[in-house]
Design a protein that fits this description.
about 475 residues, alpha+beta, Cytochrome p450, about 10% strand, binds protoporphyrin IX containing FE
């Protein structure tokens, strides 16, 4: 159901439904969207987060302003896609859950995920990635990626080795944290990347920080999308290194699956791997933020610990509650704040039409937090992902932490397996106090931004729990 029925006349045009092309927002309102919605997303870094800017966005409450700006526009203009023109390019903000579903389900035709902005940015490090591919190439690459990542399976075939790797790296991280009494983002991030390189490329890549640094430099250039020149030499060096790992095909790694899975010519199998490395970074942020939520919400923290301690921790487990915590972390702080689709033809909406080439923007902080996310909005509610009732988050098309439809994230299950396994290992025999971010507490709305770079925990081993 629409949040508000489309008004009989379109307030931005004064015209009746079906009266032709929807007219864009006026210059003042469009400038408000640019200032409060687009700029904080761009400043924070779309492809790789910028630490200083993230701190600024958090301190100034910029993301909250973005949500409020969009809420006010919806109250004024209704919930149809709101067209606006930015630097001559046609955009439409998608505000209604049903419209969000239509756009994501109608991918890649007539809503292509390979927008000009994404092609410009991602070509820096994954010129053949499925997300920036079109036509038959896209179909072959998506099929290949789905097979290797085993998209529909909650437990990947590699869940056994993956669980071992995650637990080993968590144990090393915890040993260090016990010595210092604290866990900061820097140490968490380093351990996370060791884990990711082992899971994706194999144990030989564990300490290959150069590879991650190369990817980081390419991602920084990608933040500038079309404005930045290609760093072709660095890109060749990075891609060659990835190909070497795939050729070595270390058993138990995704690289081995890549090498063993057939695909039509032109798929560029190894060329799909850079996206996985890049996207696993978001999963690290989501995990650290989930730990912050659990550290500050005692009831949920206790339930998570109970799940972490149940069953055989060394065996792969589905851990639904901890998966719900990771999903909540991405719902509350979406790692893709703007999901973009570019229309390949004219499209019709209740108030009129939008031209081909229009970029449909799903601003997830609004969809995940404001009216479409009722009743939980600004509350940490992992139970909504496990609920079977009508209030289940999975039934709400506005909640798209991993996007949805034919270009929805094919790595979702693998991510949830990795993050929940790590959270379980961290929570099994330790509790945490969040030493940063005093604003995060059960009695207050969850803050709109959480600068993960600033996260710092005090770590308390359970009494009497010796090393295992
Ligand atoms: C917390 C972690 C992650 C989140 C929140 C996430 C979310 C998303 C979202 C929102 C999209 C759609 C992007 C768009 O339409 O522009 C996407 C696409 C994609 N994700 Fe993820 N992702 C995560 C991690 C991963 C990982 C670790 C992998 C691989 C191992 C992965 C593989 C992909 C691929 C291949 C696509 C492109 C799909 C296509 O174009 O058909 N993601 N992801």
């Amino acid at each position: 159901m629409r949040l508000t029925e489309a008004t009989a006349t379109n307030p931005s045009t004064g015209e009746s439904p079906g009266a032709g092309t929807l007219r864009p927002l006026g210059a003042r309102e469009a400038a408000g969207v640019v200032g409060d919605v687009l700029l904080p997303v761009l400043a924070g870094g779309v492809i790789v987060r910028r630490p200083r800017a993230m701190g600024l966005v958090e301190r100034t409450g910029w993301d909250r302003r973005g949500v409020e700006r969009v809420r006010a526009l919806r109250q004024r203009h209704g919930s149809g896609p709101l067209p606006l023109t930015v630097r001559g390019r046609s955009y439409a903000l998608v505000l209604d859950p049903e419209d969000a579903e239509r756009v994501l389900a109608g991918t890649p035709e007539p809503f292509s995920p390979a927008t000009r902005e994404k092609r410009g940015a991602l070509a820096q490090f994954q010129p053949h990635g499925v997300l920036v591919s079109g036509g038959s190439e896209r179909a072959a690459r998506r099929e290949f990626v789905t097979q290797v990542l085993q998209t529909p399976q909650p437990l990947h075939d590699l869940a056994g080795p993956l669980t071992g790797v995650v637990r080993e790296e968590a144990a090393a991280l915890l040993a260090e944290a016990e010595r210092s009494g604290q866990l900061r983002w820097e140490e968490f991030d380093a351990a996370w990347w060791r884990t990711v390189r082992r899971v994706v490329l194999g144990d030989a890549a564990r300490d290959d920080v150069t590879l991650t640094a190369q990817l980081g430099a390419l991602r920084s250039a990608a933040n500038w999308s079309l404005l930045s020149p290609r760093r072709k030499r660095l890109r060749s060096a990075f891609l060659a290194r990835v190909r070497e790992y795939v050729a070595a095909a270390e058993p138990g790694s995704l690289a081995a699956r890549v090498a063993a899975t057939d695909a039509p010519p032109g798929t560029d199998r190894a060329g799909q791997v850079p996206h996985w490395l890049f996207a696993y970074d978001a999963a690290g942020m989501a995990t650290a933020r989930a730990l912050a939520l659990l550290a500050t919400h005692p009831r949920e923290g206790e339930r998570a610990r109970e799940e972490a301690r149940g069953g055989d921790p060394a065996a792969p487990r589905e851990l639904p509650y901890l998966r719900g915590c990771a999903l909540e972390s991405v719902r509350l702080w979406p790692t893709t704040p703007l999901i973009l689709r570019e229309s390949t033809e004219e499209t019709s909406w209740p108030g009129g039409t939008l031209p081909a080439g229009c970029v449909f923007a799903l601003y997830t902080p609004y969809l995940h937090r404001a009216e479409p996310a009722a009743p939980y909005g600004d509350t940490f509610a992992p139970q909504q992902w496990t609920a079977r009732s009508g209030r289940a988050a999975r039934a709400n098309p506005a909640l798209v932490p991993f996007s949805s439809g034919p270009a929805g994230c094919p790595g979702q299950n693998l991510v949830l397996l990795t993050t929940s396994t790590l959270l379980a290992a961290l929570l099994e025999r330790h509790t945490y106090t969040l030493a940063s971010h005093p604003g995060l507490r059960p009695a207050a709305p969850v803050p709109a931004t959480l600068d993960h770079f600033a996260l710092r925990f005090r770590v308390h081993p359970d009494p009497g729990s010796g090393p295992r």
